Structure formats: structure tokens, C-alpha cells
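Protein chain data
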Amino acid sequence: DAEMRKEYNILLERAHDPLAGMKVRVVRKGMKKMKACFDGADLIDWLVKNYTHVDLARLLSEEVIYSHFSSPEKSRRESVMKFDAQLTRQDAMHIAQQLLDFEMLHCVACTSEGTTMSPSARAGGHSRGVSKFVDSIDFIYRFQEDEEHKALNERLIYQEEARDALKVACDLLELLLSIVRKRAAGSDYDTMLLEELNRSFRDFVLRTAELQKVDISELRANELKAFALNTFHLLTLHSIWVDQGFPKSPKNRPTYFRKYYYNIGGQKYCGEDLVHGMLRGNRMSLLSGAKPFTASDPRGWYARYTAEEVDARIHFAVCYGMSDQPAIRVYHPETLDAELNQQCREAAPALMQVQMVKKTVTMPLMFEWYMSDFGSTQADLISFALNYLPVMERTVFQQFLLQFWDKGLCKLEFRPLTWSLQYDVLAVAIEASRRSMESVAASEGALSENDASLTKAVELFNEKPTKGIDEMIDKKIISGTAESIARALKDTKGLDKKQIGEYLGGEKENQIRVLEAFIDALNFEEMGFDDALRFFLSSFWLPGEAQKIDRIVERFAKKYVKNNPGIFKSEDAAYTLAFSVIMLNTDAHNPSIPPERKMTKQQFINNNRGCNDGENFPQEFLENVYDRIKLNEIKLNDEDGEDGGKKSSRGVKTFTLPQKQGWLTKQGGRKKVWRERWFILKDGCLYYFKSPPAWGKEHEMKGMIPLEGLAVRKVEGGSKKMFCFEIFTPDGTGKIKAVKTEDARKSASRSFSTFSLGHHEKYLIAARAEEERSSWVHAISLCKQKLPTVSSSSSLPSLPGESAKEE
């Protein structure tokens, strides 16, 4: 039974111990050399030395014990159970016979003449017909586990009835993945862990013997597909573990996936048989150049399921164990379509890489080999992969390909295979690999079951975003975490882009968390700065309020610097350039600005001098940004480029219905010069201009101060001006995050300058009368009900010399 077989597996493990185990040797018979062998007497000697009567009671059934101990002494069996006495040779013979009956060992040859062995045994073959163990130096035996065979699951001959084939494959893959996970997390120098893993792996190897008896002849199409995927990954991990990685020599790699086999239902299957025979309907493998099954092969019947059309999704699911391959997961026939779709969605962004600067699309080399499974052209392959990208990436890439692919300006390249092993890939990086069939089905079907609720939530969101989000949470469409809301904003169809931008720019704590989750889910690696900004802004319209723009741009800059270290000196530099690019985009694509007044390339470079933490950006970098913006507009909102210039598209902010406006005098510059400016307070931001802006006319904004997190107070004395107030940081540390426009040249022919980061630690502003000062302080302090008012009759502290630069 199973318990007794387990005891014999422990016995075999002890027999293979390098110190106290059986001493195997090479035996020659004529010209034939037989490895890892021992004679019958060696095994009996080792059993007598290492086992006792207590072990005998565990290893032999009651029938064998009673037949062996037929003595009239009634207490004989009990003595066997209780006393730790050494075995006799006759006792050990019973254990050896049981090993032979279980086919855990067999006789391979006899070195003496006149024996009663079969002809095949005399020829040196495996003498499975020898049914009786012989305690003799003339009979040569070998453990089944030490047999030289390519079928990795024949270390043990399985004699019991097997379970369902799908259940066996799933359980074995789960067991092996758990071992690989421990290996990935462990150290190469942790000897105790390595010993534990070796024992676990040996147990796994013996369990794979059950595949010898499974019946796959009655599997339906989806069942066969799930079984083939699971068994292929099982065989791949098994063979990689045995070889401790891939072949180092390139000449051995094409045949690697034909090197090892599994005995499945009495037939032998290698990796290529499972993929190209079962999954691809007996189509040719580019590695071997041949079809796996010939016309007379009994395994060829599997091809009938996929003879007409291959399910191309398998190429996103099959993992050969290389570092650029998708993660391994366990597949179930009941939810196979959902699992394959999920795997494609998770694997496609990594397998398909679009480099907009180089105008290339790269994919692994295997997609070139099996392109016929996707269609007849490269465009069919790209179209298939695009369908599984997130909505935002898909939209950007489709626009990119429409612009360049049809004109022949973009090309598809195929990356060579890396042949480097990474355990974290094999250990399943995605949590979904261990989900049950029910949870997968539930997650896939959630939206379809809530279509009506989702439609209502979308309508509410387009009216008021917070109501729509609340509706999604109430109807269990999303969980309510920042990550789930961010995914809904990216992937839910029908959401108003303007409302998405308004929600992401919100000041509430949960909205800020959603914005951070939204940006964290993006990857700007190896993307040009303007391409990343275009990619980021493609899924929503930039809101109108300056504070909202500020929050969004600030977090974009932070994420870009994190993904592309070394390009910018700081996040502030990326933040400044982002505003500059937005202004350039508006200037370049506003039809109301005459061509002779648009910003030139040299003016754009001059405006960004010293913005990289006091250093200049590389000129080639800025020139490329300028050229790409001029060629390809970034759509900032639904008014840009759609109204023929009738509406105001001067920028991303209009200044109608301000909370307060009027003339004030502001101190600025190295020499602390006082200049009169027109100030506008609106939506939590303080803007200042050279003159009052008028609708539809040119206006030169000199700067803006986002008031979030700042404080305002009256100040007395310490200045030539009366009726002063200051805007400052409550903790008194750090510079105020504000922007101003560089006065590039007095004779500039462009419509307005670009933004750069301000350097003020505080802003000192003077009104014309006490009543006017009180009114401004009160308005600012009440703005968004966010800024505290601090009364102070103390003298104004002197400003540091470097607190502000010339405007």
C-alpha cells in the first residue's frame, strides 16, 4: 500500500546516502560495461548491517511476517516488533524480494554460467522476468532509480491505478513550483536548505511515476491543451533542475527540448512533442526542423484538435525557462480561456517593447519562427499583441504605428534568445498562478455580470467623478483600494477623459493616492521625455486648475526620474522641463499664433538654460524634444486642435471668474527690486502678470504660486513698502515650489516664455492700503479653506540674499 511504498522510498534514500549507503560499482561482462550496479550479496550485507527487526515490521506486510515466522511460539511476532535485534540474512532476503516485486530494483546480468536466466538477461538486458532475488555474488542488480533513461519519471515503476490525468499534472506542477520558489529565495551557501530541497525534489521525482499510468485518450480539446501546457512546464523545470541550467554550448541548445522525456500513459513525450505536437497540431518545430509525429505514430491523433487553426495565445503562455519568458502558471480546462487571456495581458507588455525614439518594435525571436500561427504578416503579429496591452498603452502604440508603420518608418525587430536561467521567472512572479478555478472564473466574469451597474457607474462618473467611483465600490466592481481605482480609470471604457483628469488632480488624500497608484503602474523606462509625457497624458485631459496640473506634473517628473536615472540631476529639473514642454506644445500647435511669432528651437534651448539644477541640458536632447513636439502634438484637452482656433487655447488655464484680482507690488530679483504686477487669485493658485489679461488677446504671465501647503501673514516694518504681507512655508524650511517665466530676450518674437522653477523661500508683496492688504490676506487664507492665517506684529525678518533671483 501507499504507506509501505513510502517506507521503501526511505530505504532507497538511505541506500543512496554517499557515506552510509550502498557501494555501487561498474561491472564488466565481456565487452559490456554496466554502471551503478551491485551483486545480491552486497545488498543483503548492507541490509543486515543497517536494519533491525523493528524496521522489518514496517517494511513487511502481516501476511509476509506470519508466513516467515510460522513458529508455534505465539510471542515470536511481538518480539520482532519490540526488540531492536539485527536482521538475519533470511530476514533481509524478504526485504530484497519486496524491492524486486515493487520493481525498485531488477537483475541486469549474471556472471556465472549454468543459471536459469532468460535469453535477454544472458545478453545483458534487463531481466524483468527474474522473479526471485538471489543472495549471490553472481547475480548483478541495479536500482531502478539509477537506470540510464531519458524518461525522467521512470525512476520508479508505477504499479497502482492512476488518478485523473489533469489532476496529476496540476498537483505535480504545484509541488515543483513550491520547491523552485524556495530555491529562488534561498542562498547557494545554505547547506541545510539545499539538503531539504534535494529531499523534496527526490520525492517529487518519485511522484512523477504516476504519469506512466494516466489515460489522456479521452481528453477533450481544452482539457488536452491545459494538460499539455502544465506537463510541458513540469518537464521543463524538471530537466533544468537535473542539468542545473541550460547547455552552455550553443550547438547543444537546438536539441535541448528533445533531450528529456516523460512516460505518459505508456508513450514517451519530449518538450517539442507537447508543444508542437499537441498544442500546435503536429506542426514543424524551427529548432528541430521536423514535425514531432509521423503518419504512423500512435501519438498523432492529438493533432486533430488543432489541425485547422492554432490558438496563438499559447505562445504567450509557454515558458521555456529563459529570463525573457512569461511566468509559469497552472492551467485548468474549466477556466482555460480566462487564464490564457489573463496570461496574454500580463505577458504582452514585457514581450512586445516599443521604442518610440528608435521607431522600432521588438519581440522575442520565437515569435518570428512561429509567425504563421498569428497570421501571414508582421502586422498580424503586432495587431494580435496590441489587443492584450492595457488601454492606455494600446492607444499610444496604435497612434504611433498609424503614424510611422504605414509609411515604412518603423520596423519590427526580433530579440535573440537569452538562454539565461532566472529562478524568479520559473517560480511564478504572478500571484494569479496559484488561484483556484473558481476565483479565476469569478475575476474574469465580474464585469460581465455587472454590466448594468458598470454602465450606471460610468454615467455617474462622467457627471461627477466621486459619485461614479463610489458606485463602482458599492456594486463590488472594484475593491476601493487606490490601485483598483487607478486600474478602473485606465481600463474602463466610456469614462470622460476630462473627468479623469479632474479626479487625478484632486487635492483629497484618497485622490492623491490614486494619482500615485496610477503613475506607479506606468513604466517610462527607455522612453524619451516628451514621448513619456505624451504617453502619460493620452488617457486623460489635463485639468484647468493650475494646482491640479502641478500635482500631476510633479508626480510624473518623480516617476520619470526614477525610471530613467542619470538623465536629470533632480526631480525639480524634470518638473521644470515638463512645464516647458507643455508651453512649447501649446505655442507650436495654437493656430491663432502667427508662424513668425512661434518659438524657435534656439529660443526653446535658451529658455531652459541652467534648469538642470544649475546646469544646462544637452543641446541635442533639447533639439530632439523640440523636433518631436513640433512634428507630433500632445493633446492636452478636448479643445486643442478641434475648434479651429476659435476658442482660447493659449494654455491650459483660463482666468475667468477669479476669486480676487488687482494690482500689487512684488519684491524680487537679487537686488530685491519692487515691481508692480497684476495678481489673480483662482482655484488655489496665485498668478501674476505684467498687465491684466484680456479675453482672446495676448497676455504675458510672469509666474504662478501654488498655494497648497503655504501660509500667509501680515508683516510690519523691515521694508520700504507699507502694507506688506508674505507667503511662506509654515515650517520655515525649503523653497516654495513655484514657477515663473524666464524673460529670455526683450526682443523675443515668440508669444510667451516657458516656465522654469522659482527659487523663493518666501514671497513679500505690498498693497496700496491697509484695507486692500487685509482683503488679500483674507482671500488667500480662505482659498480652498486650506491656508492658515498667521497674525504677526513683529518686524519682518531680513530676506536671505539668495532667496530670489531676478524675474
